[in-house]
Task: inverse folding
């Protein structure tokens, strides 16, 4: 009951406040009504105040009347709050237990619903997959083929997918995506094939050196083998070899079958396929052919190979310094053209004979220009000789693959001439070193037999003689001709020039000049042995028509004549040196009664020199003495006829006469 009273009191209070609000509205409304009356506002306010006071009294009465009930209601509410909280806790706990008990049922219900949905979806999926599985299997097969790089099979699988399988399930999105992917896969296959081709081109660029080295080594072995076969055939013609059955065992190019079999077993023949995998280029060519784009592939391959050819033909700047530089250059070129020859014969139309011939002609011109340039820097004859051998093997190798090499033989003649020049320069240095180190003293021997024994210790060196331009591609008469011409150049230009320079050197005295004359005499005598030695090498008799003669005799004669002339010149110079020491007192009263001191020194010098001249031929020594006497007489006459000489005393004339008499006595 108390609670009800309290609630009633609250509602009454609310009503009073509502009445007040209405009053306020009434006030606002009626203010405008009384605006046009005098003292309207004052009157209105008075009435309003009276009305408010009435309401206040009513509110006060009501509050006083219901105050105790309101207090009791509040007290009751405070007592009920604890029970309400307890009730709330019990309700919450009951709700929680109810939720826990129903959760498992709810979960099982949801699981049943989900399973039924899955069962329905699975049935639908199985039905649709029966149509899609063949497409997916074919696409999976396509992926496996791509991963295993079986691109041709992959292209066939794509064709089946597009024409047979995808149209059956074209309504599905994945099939549409698959159909859109197939053209991209074709482009991807083309790109992968092109990438494989690029890797192949890079691989053969790196392996060209090894391929060329192998090919050149095989060509060199084949050349050596043929040479040995020819020798054995020649020997067999002279003395046939018969087996036990009365038949010759020479069945394999002049070698016995057993020897040939052993040779084949010992030497494993390597080819370009053994060193390089050509499958990428075959595969790429096949794929581009299937895709109808073969021409693009052919143009690309040929363009790239032309670029590689230019790179291969570009030599290193220091190639001329070592034979390895030349060998690597030749190996790369041979490797390049061995690969092209293999591609020419292993594929149909990827490269043509016209294309390889064009490449070879371009390369050959470049090779010849490069070798001419770099070989001109070579100053070592051994390096030039090795270069010549490399050119021969290089030509043999490429000729074996069908490339024309006639222009290389012209280059060989140039290299041979350059080799001769470098060899002559080398021997010019050797001759100069020999002349500078020589003490120009005769070899002491007791008799002619001992002299011959000494001379026999200095035979002609086979290797050095053979280096003078011999080449295996020439017949014996040509070799003999070249060898004699080269020897003549060595004698007439190199040795002769060295001798002439030696004779003109200031430090070479009369004793050295005498020994040089003796040496040239013996060298001239040895020319016949040199002629015999060349004949033994070439087996060409010097009496054969058109055989080149050696110019050694004239070379050494010219050198000897130059040395003789230098003796006369140096002897006269020495006489002039003594004459310059003459100090005549042209105004002396009388002579000393003996020859002048400078003249006695000159006579002693001429005596010692004449001892040296005893080793010269008689005519040379006599000519030297006559030249010295004539020069001395001329010099003495010039002293008397000197324009600066104004007067001569009788004593000076007597002293000069004593000197002349002393000269006549000697």
Result:
């Amino acid at each position: 009951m108390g609670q009800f009273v309290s609630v009633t009191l609250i509602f009454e209070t609310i009503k009073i406040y509502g009445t007040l609000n209405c009053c306020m509205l009434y006030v606002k409304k009626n203010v405008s009504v009384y605006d046009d009356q005098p003292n309207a506002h004052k009157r209105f306010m008075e009435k309003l105040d009276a009305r408010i006071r009435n309401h206040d009294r009513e509110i006060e009465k009501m509050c006083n009347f219901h105050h105790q009930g309101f207090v009791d209601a509040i007290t009751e509410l405070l007592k009920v709050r604890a029970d309400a909280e307890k009730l709330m806790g019990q309700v919450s706990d009951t709700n929680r237990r109810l939720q826990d008990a129903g959760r498992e049922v709810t979960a099982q219900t949801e699981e049943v619903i989900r399973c039924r949905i899955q069962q329905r979806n699975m049935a639908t999926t199985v039905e649709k997959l029966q149509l899609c599985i063949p497409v997916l299997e074919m696409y999976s097969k396509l992926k496996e083929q791509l991963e295993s790089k079986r691109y041709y099979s992959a292209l066939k699988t794509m064709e089946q997918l597009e024409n047979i399988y995808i149209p059956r399930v074209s309504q599905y999105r994945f099939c549409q995506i698959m159909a859109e992917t197939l053209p991209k896969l074709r482009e991807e296959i083309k790109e992968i094939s092109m990438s494989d081709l690029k890797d192949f081109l890079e691989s053969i660029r790196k392996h060209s050196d090894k391929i060329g080295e192998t090919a050149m080594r095989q060509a060199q072995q084949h050349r050596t083998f043929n040479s040995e076969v020819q020798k054995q055939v020649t020997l067999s013609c002279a003395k046939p070899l018969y087996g036990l059955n009365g038949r010759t065992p020479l069945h394999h190019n002049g070698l016995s079958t057993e020897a040939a079999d052993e040779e084949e077993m010992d030497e494993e023949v390597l080819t370009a396929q053994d060193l390089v995998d050509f499958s990428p280029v075959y595969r790429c060519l096949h794929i581009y052919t299937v895709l109808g784009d073969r021409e693009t592939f052919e143009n690309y391959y040929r363009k790239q190979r032309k670029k590689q050819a230019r790179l291969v033909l570009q030599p290193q700047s220091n190639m001329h310094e070592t034979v390895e530089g030349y060998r690597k250059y030749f190996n790369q070129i041979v490797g390049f053209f061995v690969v092209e020859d293999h591609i020419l014969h292993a594929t149909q139309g990827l490269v043509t004979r016209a294309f390889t011939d064009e490449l070879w002609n371009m390369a050959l011109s470049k090779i010849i220009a490069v070798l001419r340039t770099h070989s001109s820097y070579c100053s070592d004859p051994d390096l030039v000789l090795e270069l010549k051998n490399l050119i021969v093997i290089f030509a043999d190798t490429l000729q074996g693959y069908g490339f024309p090499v006639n222009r290389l033989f012209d280059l060989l003649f140039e290299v041979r001439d350059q080799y001769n020049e470098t060899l002559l320069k080398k021997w010019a240095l050797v001759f100069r070193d020999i002349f500078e180190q020589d003490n120009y003293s005769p070899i002491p021997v007791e008799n002619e037999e001992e002299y011959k024994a000494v001379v026999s210790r200095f035979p002609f060196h086979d290797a050095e003689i053979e280096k003078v331009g011999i080449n295996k591609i020439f017949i014996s008469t040509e070799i003999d001709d070249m060898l004699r011409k080269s020897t003549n150049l060595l004698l007439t230009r190199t040795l002769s020039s060295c001798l002439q320079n030696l004779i003109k050197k200031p430090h070479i005295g009369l004793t050295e000049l005498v020994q040089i004359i003796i040496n040239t005499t013996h060298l001239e005598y040895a020319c016949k042995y040199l002629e015999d030695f060349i004949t033994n090498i070439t087996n060409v008799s010097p009496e054969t028509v058109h055989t080149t003669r050696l110019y050694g005799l004239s070379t050494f004669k010219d050198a000897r004549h130059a040395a003789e002339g230098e003796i006369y010149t140096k002897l006269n110079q020495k006489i002039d040196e003594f004459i310059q020491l003459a100090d005549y007192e042209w105004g002396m009263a009388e002579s000393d009664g003996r020859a002048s001191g400078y003249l006695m020194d000159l006579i002693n010098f001429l005596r010692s020199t004449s001892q040296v001249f005893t080793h010269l031929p008689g005519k040379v020594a006599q000519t030297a003495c006559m030249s010295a006497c004539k020069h001395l007489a001329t010099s003495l006459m010039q002293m008397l006829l000197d324009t600066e000489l104004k007067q001569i005393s009788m004593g000076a004339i007597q002293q000069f006469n004593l000197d002349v008499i002393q000269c006549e006595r000697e």
Observations:
- Residues 1-7, 237-267, 459-475 have pLDDT under 50 and may be disordered.
- Strands lie at 250-252, 255-256.
